[in-house]
């Protein structure tokens, strides 16, 4: 259980834990590479620990100590058939990306996760991987876990993805690295491109043209050191906290500002918020900066179209922010929210309403009424880390004490969240 009191001010200079997407990929690519990969800034959250444990079960030697990880890769075909099922916990990224990798392996694996994973759609990766030649089965003809995969020789395909999803794109490209010929994924809008950037850092040739990405089969990865930047999706909670609480100013150091992830910054600026990026640099192909956020009066906005994949994980906390802006905020084209860790249209509406906010669900998003006077509430994270944290941030602007039940879910992506919040709030 997490208790949050209304804050008078947010102040300080902080860092957030490592980027979740980049941490997963660093472990996976390190496990498939020849030679050792040293990772620093790794996110020791439950999701990325699930990725480590899956590869350990396939015989890869991985040592993890806080945010430092050493992966001793034995090459792409150095994985061994696991004797037990692979448990992906709560992690969609783990199960979908690993499905692509396992589709190339000449052995049998069974993948399973928690209750939330059991409800999430898998045919979006199973379908194209089957087209490439992988044998994959699962409940409801491969839509749901457990998934059973027998990989083997694959053939490259050109796949027109119906959704902008980095998990779909990455699963297919990873399978494509060991398929015959060329594998191409075309997306309706570009999703986060960490796979493309990190594969390049591991020595892979990859061609990006507009919304399409291609790889040739038969390439191998070389182990290397990877420095993981802070997660902008975690920084987002702190950015919103500053905008919710008057007289606040915060510097968040060392945050990844990959343009496929910075929708939150664009939206806060469009609403009238003051955000500056300083100390910009590039590390392992990924842009990084310090983010300086100053409290500002905000106005509601419309969030839609190409912007959605660039802030999909931030929508719960953006909804919280919108309750404090002048006027209405409308979120459209975000039906993907329904298939995240929870149905995030339903969970945002049900939990944010408990604070007295007016949020109306729509088919593909929600409408949030601004200038709301929030009152402290008793909240359930519903087992969704981002719902738990978004509601904790709402609690900072609500007189009284807000209680978040099932707050342990927060460890999925932001260990130390409660302590950090206490450190910066007065
Ligand atoms: C992720 C991609 C996104 C995002 C998830 C992490 C990744 O999912 O929501 O938290 O690391 O590739 P989709 O690609 O399914 O949209």
How would you describe this structure to a colleague?
α3 links the parallel β6 (86-87) and β7. The relative contact order is 0.14. This protein is of the alpha/beta class and 426 residues long. α1 (20-32) runs parallel beside α7 (194-201) and α3 runs parallel beside α6. Helix content is 30%, strand content 28%. The structure holds shikimate-3-phosphate.
Q: For the terminal residues, how far apart are their CA atoms? A: 20 Å
Counting DSSP H or I runs of 4 or more residues, the number of helices is 13
Oligomer: single chain
Within CATH, the superfamily of the largest domain carries the name Enolpyruvate transferase domain
Number of domains: 2
The tally of strands reads: 25
Structural class of the helices, strands and pairings? alpha/beta
Shape: globular
CATH topology category name of the largest domain: UDP-n-acetylglucosamine1-carboxyvinyl-transferase, Chain
**Bound ligands:** shikimate-3-phosphate
Provide the low-confidence segments as ranges.
none
Instruction: Let me know the largest β-sheet.
Output: 4 strands, mixed
C-alpha Rg, in Å?
21 Å
List keywords for this structure.
426 residues; UDP-n-acetylglucosamine1-carboxyvinyl-transferase, Chain; four-stranded mixed sheet; 13 helices; binds shikimate-3-phosphate
How would you concisely characterize the structure shown here?
The chain has 426 residues and is α/β, with parallel strands linked by helices. It is 30% helix and 28% strand. The chain is built from 13 helices and 25 strands.
């Amino acid at each position: 259980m997490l208790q949050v009191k209304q804050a008078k001010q947010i102040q300080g200079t902080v860092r957030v834990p490592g980027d979740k997407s980049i941490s997963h990929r660093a472990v996976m690519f390190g496990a498939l590479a020849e030679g050792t990969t040293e990772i620093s800034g790794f996110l020791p959250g439950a999701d990325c620990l699930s990725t480590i444990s899956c590869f350990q079960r396939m015989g890869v030697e991985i040592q993890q100590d806080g945010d430092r990880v050493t992966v001793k890769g034995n090459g792409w075909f150095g994985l061994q058939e696991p004797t037990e099922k692979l448990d992906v916990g709560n992690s969609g990224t783990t199960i979908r990306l690993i499905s692509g990798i396992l589709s190339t392996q000449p052995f049998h694996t069974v993948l399973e996760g928690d209750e939330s994973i059991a409800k999430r759609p898998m045919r979006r990766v199973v379908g194209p991987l089957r087209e490439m030649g992988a044998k994959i089965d699962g409940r409801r003809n491969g839509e749901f876990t457990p998934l059973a995969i027998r990989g083997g020789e694959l053939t490259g395909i050109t796949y027109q993805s119906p959704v902008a999803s980095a998990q779909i794109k990455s699963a297919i490209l990873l399978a494509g690295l060991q398929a015959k010929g060329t594998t191409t994924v075309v997306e309706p809008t570009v999703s986060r491109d960490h796979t493309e950037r990190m594969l390049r850092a591991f020595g892979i040739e990859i061609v990006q043209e507009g919304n399409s990405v291609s790889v040739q089969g038969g390439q191998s990865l070389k182990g290397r050191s990877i420095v993981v930047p802070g997660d902008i999706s975690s920084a987002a909670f702190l950015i919103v906290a500053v905008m919710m609480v008057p007289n606040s100013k915060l510097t968040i150091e060392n945050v990844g500002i990959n343009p496929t992830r910075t929708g939150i910054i664009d939206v806060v600026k469009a609403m009238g918020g003051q955000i500056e990026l300083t100390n910009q640099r590039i590390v392992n192909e990924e842009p990084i900066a310090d983010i300086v956020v100053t409290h500002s009066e905000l106005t509601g906005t419309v969030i839609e179209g190409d912007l959605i994949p660039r802030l999909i994980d931030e929508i719960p906390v953006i909804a919280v922010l919108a309750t404090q802006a002048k006027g209405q905020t409308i979120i459209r084209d975000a039906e993907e929210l329904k298939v995240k860790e929870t149905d995030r249209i339903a969970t945002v509406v049900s939990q944010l309403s408990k604070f007295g906010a007016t949020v109306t669900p729509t088919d593909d998003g929600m409408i949030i009424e601004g200038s709301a006077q929030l009152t402290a509430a008793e909240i359930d994270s519903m087992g969704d880390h981002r719902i738990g944290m978004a509601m904790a941030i709402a609690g900072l602007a609500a007189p009284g004490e807000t209680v978040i039940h099932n707050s342990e879910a927060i460890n999925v992506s932001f260990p130390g969240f409660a302590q950090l919040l206490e450190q910066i709030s007065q």
